[in-house]
Amino acid sequence: MYKFEQNNKKPLYVQLYEQIKKDIIENYKLDEKLPSIRKIMTTYNISKNTVEAAYSQLVIEGYIESFPKKGYLVINNEFQNFENSNIQIEKTTNKEDILYDFFPARLHKSTFPLKLWKRVYSKAINESVDLGMYLDKQGEYELRVEIAKYLNHSRAVNCSAEQIIMTNGFADSLSIIAMLFNNEIKNFSMEKPGYHVARKVFLNHNYNIDDISINDEGIDIKKLKQNISSLLYITPSHQYPTGVTIPISNRNSLLSWAKETSSYIIEDDYDTELSYFNKPIPSLQGLDTNDRVIYFGTFSKALSPALRVGYLVLPKQLIEKYKQKFMYHACRVCLITQKTLELFIKEGFWDKHLRRIRTINKKKHNLMKTHLLEKLGSTIKIEMQGGGLAILINPTVNLDWEKLEKLAQKKKIKLHYTKERTNNDWQALMMGFGGFKEEEIEKAVTAFSKIWFESIS
Hints:
- With 457 residues, the protein is α/β, with parallel strands linked by helices.
- Helix content is 40%, strand content 14%.
- The protein has helices spanning 12-27, 37-44, 48-60, 114-124, 141-154, 170-181, 196-204, 221-225, 248-261, 316-325, 335-346, 349-376, 401-410, 418-421, 438-454; strands at residues 64-67, 71-74, 100-101, 164-167, 187-192, 208-215, 218-219, 231-234, 264-268, 293-298, 310-313, 380-384, 390-395, 413-414, 429-432.
- The radius of gyration is 25 Å and the shape is globular.
- It starts with 11 loop residues before the first helix and ends with a helix.
- The mean pLDDT is 90.
């Protein structure tokens, strides 16, 4: 039963909201139904507006959601209450004291399905798990089966479990490819602007880098054909960082180029699970009939970057080469993580989580866009939106970038620029929203807008 204090300075709806939230955290399970608005009204003799206001706040904060013919269901109860903790955390001088961090590739910790993951973890770790032996070098076979099913269905990737290699994230995936070809290929091509980590990995393996500019239809194929590289890295479905999508005609041209030159294309499909307004375009790999595309995927953008779980799909003709060259190689993903993820996918929780994470981040995306336009107005141009975990903006006025950065540091605002994360001088601000709670976004953009206008010359 909930209790209300008439003399309390807090409005009645706030008292109700706080008690229901506490109840959700401590007692409710995911997808469990809350009492109807009418039942709360009659039980506690309070107005409909009071109950609706409390439920509305819970919806905004992401604890519950209203579903037709079902009512209000709990969609997130993975929060912990630390108010009674006696642990004293000492601040260190090395840690930055940041109020608002617009990091472009971060998820808020509340979005990870912690309680569910714990439950699946406990179920996955049973007597069948052999902790006394070394891992499968390609990763656990049963997990690769589940990933292959998912890729076939959701991304139109043509593959089997035998073609999948589990990796410890993007750099590990790319390093495997670099080592796979480093005795026969010397030149490596990539998009410009493009992901700086890809460039660094191949430079570390002594490749010559050919930067190929992009246009409104992705990588410039004419310029690509003028280079001698026979290994190409691209992000065709959501180009990093511009967001350009390669149309079907250019995808076919790329595949023809790969076939005619006996080249390989590395397709990085890094964030297509987070597409908010359009259905993701099927993979380039799914169009390939000549085994020339190496496909990359990750669980970092939609599940957790901390787990460090990625995978690559090798063409069939490269599998034997991989096994011979990497006979010493051990899978760098923890066995227990693999077994938990396998069951997480197999029992349908991954698909359910994707629906939830898209909903959460779509709301954050829309809030970020709305507040940027409201507070910065015509002084900005949106360069990229509609997917991923950030919106890219540029000024339409004269902006002193150096002053902006100094003011940001002074006001404890962490900004991120495309120049830092690409191989190009193309500049844009990456306004990451994934690391914020929904209610924090307006405050963050308001604080940012103040230093933005101070930096306009």
